[in-house]
Specification:
alpha/beta; binds 5-O-phosphono-beta-D-ribofuranose; ribose-5-phosphate isomerase activity; RpiB_LacA_LacB; single chain; RpiB; Ribose 5-phosphate Isomerase B, Chain: A; isomerase; RpiB_LacA_LacB_sf
């Protein structure tokens, strides 16, 4: 898959490890920055990366800041982006199987890289259970809410 990665200074080190993992597994990585541990503002990097997901320029996104929620807040403001903060592999599995997320957010200050890489592996390899009626119904309801409240890219 083609994966957008992005984050701020607090996620930089883990982002580099995630990039290496994804590349070793045969994925194509598009790095939206930041590119060092120099302090920066998270929205400057997450917004363009989330847009790339929404526009279908990449298949999914993995965003990393200090605690994870900042990336999810920004990403979920974009129509077509469904981001979850996952700090353990169980959450990562359900974020795909139940919720069909297309963006994974991780907190580099919260978990160590061994757990973070396990989260990425699980999230990347778990399919949405779209043939289970209750999960499809719930995901459809989230899509309906975004259709009511978020502008489609074509309307911007
Ligand atoms: O390093 P500073 O700027 O103090 O904190 C940045 C982090 O703190 C939280 O808001 C976010 O997780 C962000 O990545």
């Amino acid at each position: 898959m083609k994966i957008a990665v992005a984050g701020d200074h607090a996620g930089f080190s883990l982002k580099e490890e995630v990039k290496a993992l994804l590349t070793s597994q045969g994925h194509e990585v598009v790095d939206f920055g930041t590119h060092s541990e120099e302090a920066c503002d998270l929205p400057d990097y997450i917004y363009p990366a989330a847009l790339a997901v929404a526009e279908g320029k990449v298949d999914r996104g993995i965003f990393i800041d200090g605690v994870g929620y900042g990336s999810a807040m920004i990403a979920n403001k974009i129509y077509g982006v469904y981001a979850a903060v996952c700090q353990d592999p169980f959450c990562a599995e359900l974020a795909r199987s139940h919720s069909n997320t297309n963006v994974l957010c991780i907190g580099g200050k919260i978990i160590g890289s061994a757990i973070a890489l396990e989260i990425v592996k699980v999230w990347m390899t778990t399919d949405h259970l779209g043939d289970v009626e209750k999960y499809k119904r719930r995901v459809d309801k989230v899509v309906e809410i975004s259709e009511k409240h978020l502008k489609k890219l074509s309307e911007l």
